[in-house]
Design a protein that fits this description.
Layout (H helix, E strand, L loop, with lengths): L1 E11 L5 H17 L4 E3 L30 H15 L2 E11 L2 E9 L5 E5 L5 H7 L1 E2 L7 E3 L2 E5 L8 H9 L4 E5 L5 H18 L2 E5 L1 E3 L15 E3 L11 E4 L6 E8 H10 L18
Parallel strand pairs: 1-2, 1-11, 2-3, 4-6, 8-9, 9-10
Antiparallel strand pairs: 1-14, 3-4, 4-5, 7-8, 10-12, 12-13
Length: 287
């Protein structure tokens, strides 16, 4: 089984309406459609761009994070419509939703048939708590698609090997990682751990991040991002485990083909067989 994936390095800039946001999203999706992609990944927190619209009172002030959920319906309708029209699976980065007075940083998977699934971010960074009072999700979701079984783990989640091990144990062959990082240190923490997770679990990881700046939006003024398609580091794959990557901090989209048969091959007879060789007699395994 092969699947083609695209990852968007989404350019954040100040906008004046939801229509401008929709036009930018549509442009990226149409580009991926021209490449006949099966999945399109957007970054974490890219819908914070909607906060730059403000309240329309002429003050020039951005919305606060607690006001972003007012766009949830329009955001979902936009991505549902594009998924249906293009026949692609769209991973709509993450969007902030509100439930019972709590805010959740939530990734959405939009299926071509109109279904919508979600994965809340499980590990919340200190600044998400201090700056935005964000709550953590409490369950790992695994998604079945007609192209294989996948998981979506958001940015900081990839820095915890246990949760990725759980996803692999439950059959995920591809992890999609929408991220948003503000400097080189944060970017490389996520990037290096994505590479580690592919080696430990013999899976693919598709990652991307935001680029550009939202000068009026708190905590979104700096972005350092790059999309990458990351593979296990073994002979059938590229040296260094990097299939392809974007130009750092450029507005662009990358595309690559994932061959699941190669994963199954290296799990059985690779140079190393890290998944099979786990010492579960010494440490707990995930079922």
């Amino acid at each position: 089984m092969k699947l083609r994936v695209s990852a968007v390095q989404y350019h954040l800039h100040t906008i004046g309406s939801f229509q401008q946001f929709a036009a930018q999203v549509t442009s990226y999706v149409r580009t991926a459609e021209e490449f006949e992609s099966d999945f399109v990944l957007f970054p974490e927190l890219f819908t914070t761009q909607l906060m730059s619209i403000g309240r329309g009172d002429g003050s020039g002030e951005a919305l606060q994070i607690g006001e972003l959920p007012q766009y949830t319906r329009q955001y979902k309708e936009l991505f549902q419509g594009l998924a249906r029209e293009t026949g692609m699976h769209l991973i709509g980065g993450t969007h902030i939703i509100e439930e019972n007075g709590r805010l959740y940083n939530t990734a959405f998977l939009f299926y071509p048939d109109g279904r919508v699934a979600e994965q809340r971010k499980l590990h919340i960074t200190p600044w998400e708590v201090k700056g935005w009072n964000m709550a953590a999700g409490d369950a790992l979701q695994i998604f079945d698609t007609d192209k294989g079984r996948i998981a979506i783990l958001v940015c900081y989640d990839m820095e915890f090997p246990e949760i990725v091990r759980m996803a692999r144990a439950r059959g995920a062959d591809v992890i999609f990682c929408p991220s948003c990082t503000d400097d080189r240190h944060a970017f490389h923490r996520v990037r290096y751990t994505c590479h580690a997770r592919t080696i430990e679990n013999q899976i693919y990881v598709v990652a991307t991040g935001t680029v550009g700046s939202l000068p009026t939006v708190d905590f979104m003024r700096g972005n350092f991002g790059q999309a990458a398609i990351i593979t296990p580091n073994d002979v059938p794959f590229p040296p260094g485990g990097l299939m392809t990557a974007g130009e750092i901090n450029d507005d662009m989209i990358i595309t690559g083909d994932l061959d699941l048969a190669l994963l199954y091959e290296v799990r059985e007879k690779g140079s190393v067989t890290t998944w099979r060789d786990r010492r579960t007699d010494l440490y707990p395994d995930w079922k």
